[in-house]
């Protein structure tokens, strides 16, 4: 009576990866059945997954009418390699952006 207990559970990437898709979120539902009363209690939690950031760095001076090299850095946080990824840069004045396969 009047006590509290903490239970820790781990959800591995391999368990949730097939269900994430483009949403970058997990919906967790926890349910508990109380034997003494027959009650069932439930709680839901929406967890937003943190997506890695892209870092853009100009590698030279940005001069009107001239090309400027841009370095893009992305770190894959997943325990498996990414395949079929591509990078596309868009912006005002950039004509015909072309995807770069990675």
Automatic annotation (TrEMBL):
GO terms for molecular function: protein-glutamine gamma-glutamyltransferase activity. InterPro entries: Ig-like_fold, Transglutaminase, Transglutaminase_C_sf. Keywords: Transferase. SUPFAM superfamilies: Transglutaminase, two C-terminal domains. Gene3D superfamilies: Immunoglobulins. This is TGM1 glutamyltransferase.
């Amino acid at each position: 009576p009047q006590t509290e207990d903490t239970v820790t559970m781990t959800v591995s990437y391999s368990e949730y990866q097939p269900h994430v898709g483009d949403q970058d979120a997990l919906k967790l539902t926890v349910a508990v059945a109380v034997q003494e009363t027959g009650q069932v209690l439930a709680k839901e939690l929406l967890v937003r997954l943190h997506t890695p950031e892209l870092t853009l760095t100009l590698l030279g001076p940005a001069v009107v009418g001239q090309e400027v090299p841009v370095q893009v850095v992305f770190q894959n946080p997943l325990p498996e390699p990414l395949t079929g990824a591509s990078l596309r840069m868009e912006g005002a004045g950039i004509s015909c952006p072309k995807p770069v396969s990675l």
